[in-house]
Amino acid sequence: MREGNPGKPDRALLGVLNGDVIEPPPIWMMRQAGRYLPEYREIRKRAPNFLGFCFDPDLATEATLQPIRRYGFDAAILFSDILTVPHALGSNVWFAEGEGPRLDPVRDTAAVEALRFDPAKLAAVYETVRRVRRDLPAQTTLLGFAGAPWTVAAYMVEGSGSRDWVETKRWAYANTGFDRLIDRLVDATVEHLALQLEAGADAVQIFDSWAGALDPAGFEKFVIEPTQRIVGRLKDRVPGARIIGFPRQAGALYPRYADATGVDGLSLDTSVPLNWAVGAIKNVALQGNLDPLRLLAGGTSLDAAIDAIRQAMRGRRFIFNLGHGVLPPTPIEHVAQLVERVRG
Ligand SMILES: Cc1c2[nH]c(c1CCC(=O)O)Cc1[nH]c(c(CCC(=O)O)c1C)Cc1[nH]c(c(CCC(=O)O)c1C)Cc1[nH]c(c(C)c1CCC(=O)O)C2
């Protein structure tokens, strides 16, 4: 079934994005580098704060490689964060230990006009990409990433995480300059993703974690339209760029997102019935969507959930993943069970 990738080493995950059906499917996990790994918790102590960790190429390279060494996943994902982009735009971003991200809120046009993307502030990130590519096994795909404009804007407007994103939606729907923030983020995201691809990333994922917070008209304007611009411009700038989109909780709007944005792969959240997705979503590789809680719980119900996903996706361009990030209390043995079951 393989066409191969002329001129490229045989990277299964990149192969799926390029059009191959591969059995067993390549596997990686969102948030595979992080707190569920004892070796991550150990090196995390070496940095004074989380952004300092992300901007230290020694530490970020090591964190990226840890899950590859332990489990041999088919892809490594750059260890970084979606909030490095607001940092490079000049926003004040910090992680209050145990409380999640904090930013100085951006709530008017003057604050938007003050933002300037300076990629020099992310030089350590691109250096990490180069080092990881140099140290990775040749068959392992390296993924870069960015947050989508809507999700990054939501953190910038609220100044933190939120359940309902009230201030962001109020401004977005009022139509009083929020689009300018989205435009700035589209420009910065294209630049940031292009620099990762040019430093050695094989493909990139765009995380729109809060896409599901919008109504359908808002989803069209603030999720689909900016993502479509990013994909078009990135493919113009970096020929052959491969892009996975993750509009989390998009529900019935997943097919529209896949058709309209031009992504090569679509990451499905835990709530999506795969039998529906296979029929409704054409012409893209699908990725997903094991419930991270199944992985945490383990046991025979984990095996059954893995088998059901494999069964539903047989014959389809598919990348095995979770429906969202792995949770910190997940036992490391359950992850070993997952990888073995998918490949066995
Ligand atoms: C919304 C979002 C963020 N960051 C990210 C998203 C989109 C994906 C999603 O929806 O989960 C993306 C992200 N964050 C991180 C990665 C690294 C690569 C990987 O997936 O392994 C990636 C791809 C590391 C991280 N980013 C963060 C950690 C934990 C902090 C630490 O280790 O000290 C890690 C490993 C911190 C972070 N960063 C963010 C939050 C809300 C938090 C705090 C919540 C939490 O603690 O999980 C913003």
UniProtKB/TrEMBL annotation:
Keyword match Magnesium: no
Site (Transition state stabilizer): D81
First-tier enzyme category under EC: lyase
List of residues binding substrate: R31, Q32, A33, G34, R35, D81, Y155, S209, H324
UniProt cross-references to PROSITE patterns, sorted A to Z: UROD_1, UROD_2
Record-stated family: Belongs to the uroporphyrinogen decarboxylase family.
Name assigned to this protein: Uroporphyrinogen decarboxylase
Pathway this chain belongs to: Porphyrin-containing compound metabolism; protoporphyrin-IX biosynthesis; coproporphyrinogen-III from 5-aminolevulinate: step 4/4
GO cellular component: cytosol
Record's subunit section: Homodimer.
Enzyme Commission code(s) on record: 4.1.1.37
Keyword set, alphabetical order: Cytoplasm, Decarboxylase, Lyase, Porphyrin biosynthesis
Location in or out of the cell: Cytoplasm
Known catalytic reactions: uroporphyrinogen III + 4 H(+) = coproporphyrinogen III + 4 CO2
Pfam entry (one): URO-D
Chain segments annotated as coiled-coil in the UniProt record: none
Molecular function as annotated in GO: uroporphyrinogen decarboxylase activity
Gene Ontology process terms (BP): protoporphyrinogen IX biosynthetic process from glutamate
Stretches assigned to the Uroporphyrinogen decarboxylase (URO-D) domain: 26-35, 143-159
Major site of localization recorded for this protein: cytoplasm
UniProt cross-references to InterPro entries, sorted A to Z: UROD/MetE-like_sf, Uroporphyrinogen_deCO2ase_HemE, Uroporphyrinogen_deCOase
